[in-house]
Specification:
Length: about 240
């Protein structure tokens, strides 16, 4: 079994974007839900630790906004529409997790792609600044797929593979993510590609995720990015 590609989640897997995401969310709340600012700021936006906990618990960003931030459905939709604009204009530094650069360099012989609910333009900018952009031949953000095609729908994965290969079928793919929805995404991608393909799910636990407690179980768990190299060697 030969590994054909490694696909990555972005937030919480490649980069620690929590400080930036918190700052963006506060600014958006001040516009669409000012009643949730100041003394009424949701607890989960008051520290990185609290944000990590709810972010890894929520099924998706919509549930995060409504269930954990306390936004109404209409406020959530309005906030989502503002995300890209504020994400691109926000200057809060975003850094790669220690070990990510060394990992992708060691695995450079395998094509890499990103499937994320972040904006593709933002992702590419951060990768370029960190000088690792050349290792990622395909980047699919939430703005590259339909609203109904957001993860865990496999739509973004199919689009990513179509940028990497002439055909996405009959491939062995590894997907690395820090959320239970990333495991579901890998399973849905497997179903979409069919039995002639293999999708291996790897859970990244180094950003605070607790995969041992997930209902959807990954094939592997890594505690540091460099642990991915040993797993990949099983398929090379």
């Amino acid at each position: 079994m030969k590994l054909d590609a490694i696909l990555w989640d972005y937030d919480g897997t490649i980069v620690n974007s929590v400080p930036k995401n918190i700052d963006i969310t506060k600014r958006i709340l001040s516009i669409v839900a000012p009643h949730l600012t100041g003394d009424n700021l949701p607890y989960c936006l008051q520290s990185e630790a609290a944000y990590h906990q709810v972010n890894h618990t929520a099924k998706n960003w919509q549930e995060l906004y409504v269930k954990y931030y306390g936004m109404t459905e209409s406020e959530m939709l309005a906030a989502g529409a503002l995300w890209t604009e504020h994400q691109l204009s926000n200057t809060t530094p975003v850094t790669l997790f220690a070990g990510v650069e060394d990992t992708v360099r060691r695995l450079a012989a395998v094509p890499h792609g990103i499937c994320s609910q972040n904006a593709a333009k933002n992702i590419k900018g951060v990768l370029a600044e960190a000088q690792v952009d050349t290792f990622f031949q395909a980047v699919i953000g939430y703005d590259d797929v339909s609203q109904s095609g957001q993860k865990p729908s496999p739509e973004g994965g199919i689009r990513c593979l179509e940028q990497l290969f002439a055909t996405p079928v009959n491939k062995v793919i590894m997907y690395v993510g820090d959320h239970q929805a990333d495991v579901q995404f890998a399973r849905n991608l497997q179903s979409e590609l069919g039995q002639d393909s293999t999708v291996i799910s790897v859970a990244a636990a180094y950003s605070g995720a607790m995969p041992d407690k997930w209902q959807a179980k990954p094939d592997f768990i890594i505690r540091t990015p460099m642990e991915l190299t040993a797993i990949c060697e099983l398929y090379l």
